[in-house]
Amino acid sequence: MTTVTHGFLDDPVFGIVSDVASSLGVRAYVIGGYVRDCFLGRPNDDIDIVVEGSGIALAGAVAQRTSGKVTVFKNFGTAMLRHKGKELEFVGARKESYHRESRKPVVEDGTLEEDQLRRDFTINAMAFSLQKEDYGALVDPFGGIRDLSEGIIRTPLDPDTTYSDDPLRMLRAIRFATRLSEEGHPFTIVPESLDSMRRNRDRLAILSKERIVEELDKILLTSRPSMGFRLMDETGLLELILPALSRLKGVETVDGKGHKENFSHTLQVVDNVASAEAAQGLEPNLWLRWAALLHDIGKPSSKRFVPGSGWTFHGHEVIGARMVPGIFQQLKMPLNEKMKYVQKLVGLHLRPIALVDEEVTDSAVRRLLFDAGDDIDDLMLLCNADITSKNPAKVSRIRANLELVKRKLVEVEEKDAIRNFKNPITGEYVMELFGIPPGKEIGILKEYVKEAILEGEIGNNFEEADALMRKRAAELGLVPVK
Ligand code: CTP
Q1: Domain residue spans in the chain?
Q2: 128 phi and psi, to 5 degrees?
Q3: Which CATH number describes the domain made up of 1-150?
């Protein structure tokens, strides 16, 4: 008999589950992510309980003791119960076999060991006993603890079986390797697993796009997303999931001149965004990270070699912005304001730098503020992240210039309040003043006023806007009715 005193099951809820299981005469275990995270010292309130018997029956009996409410998922044979901030998911131990065309397994009752064997990784297949006689004992038949301390992602079964059964696990392996490496302790996926992913990559076809994107999002939200995207690339998954990103790879050389390797550059920019957010104490912004990932997506289509001057990617930001909706649609991502935000940042990502190359005039700064609106700070963060040159003199020059743009942005915003620009002249006002119905004159007058404000010819206020609008209206033959 092993008694373990690690304290991982000190929360009284585990004692309750243990008592109830014992009174029902079934064996129950805590399994999966919670056990893994205990050893990693990471808080986790999602607790999976596996029982050699009915998970639903055990959940029901536990709920009676805790006066909780059980939600039963009949199709999956699972039941969920919330208790003091923790979410407990109960499931009967099972062995599974899979059909080739689906992630949905054929499920049969099984033992704990059979259940552990069907799980994705050794580090996710460990269990703590809830039996009275060995409460808290670690049940680790595949060396999960060893793999956790050595930083190894490995499947309990032959990886071809594990990945072919549920191809989402290929992305999960990459996500875990990337996420767990964050803690300063590198994790690697064993070579047999990486080879197996290469062999099984076409199995991704049976996954829903939503599940794939969920994993991409989780990888993007880590502190070094580049690691995950490189692994996806090396295993051939990226080409199937985000072909437009794969196309950024490689360097073409003409007349001895090569261009920037845009794939590495892009990944560096995503990592830079992650580091900048952390340094500034900001919450990770998923959509800013998507914008970083896609910021140069238009480069392959805009690439030209101009004899005498070299490579150009002229207009890649416009092409890139146009590609964003298609990419979101292909991945079944929301085509809402999040997509528009990503599209906007991709389209504007060169503007602050372009300002620096020219003279930083007030009107150029006003136009930038007008176009970026409330997303100006995110755009500036992206722009800074986009500086990946290895030439320190160049880097400090661009950074200093971007600082200048930032100061100007503050100055101009204080003076002219362009960030949430609202035209001081409304359509209703024009119609009432001149007694005219809706028509093109209204658009002409409003545009005229907006341009004058952005150019700095007049201030952003009603008096000056009204005077200018009346002058222009007179030229159009409009006369005030009162
Ligand atoms: N699991 C699996 N195959 C999957 C998904 C999950 O074998 N495709 C098993 C693993 O044992 C995993 C457990 O189910 O630990 C719970 O899965 P999930 O809640 O998705 O992940 P966690 O491991 O808890 O990790 P996280 O919450 O950080 O995603």
Answers
A1: 1-150, 152-241, 252-416, 427-475
A2: -110, 135
A3: 3.30.460.10
- Look at ligand 1, atom 24, and give the residue with the nearest C-alpha: 33
Give the mutation target among 49, 119, 157 for probing the ligand 1 site: most ligand atoms within 8 A of CB: 119
**Nearest CA-CA partner of 18 in 138, 139, 137, 135:** 135
Is the C-beta atom of 68 inside 6 A of ligand 1? no
Condensed to tens digits (0 to 9), the pLDDT of residues 42-62 reads 999 999 999 999 999 999 999
Task: State the Cα–Cα distance between residues 272 and 295, nearest whole angstrom.
Answer: 13
Q: What is the pTM of this model?
A: 0.91
Calpha distance 157→166 (Å, rounded): 12
**Fold topology of 152-241:** Hydrophobic Seed Protein (1.10.110)
- The response to whether residue 33 sits with its C-beta less than 6 Å from ligand 1 reads yes
What's the pLDDT tens digit per position in 367-392? 999 999 999 999 999 999 999 999 99
Beta strands in 46-126 (DSSP E): 46-52, 70-73, 78-83, 86-92, 94-98, 105-109
Which residue carries 């700064």 as its tokens? Answer: 365
Task: Look at the block and give the residue holding tokens 């805790």.
Answer: 66
Distance CA 131, CA 286 (A): 42
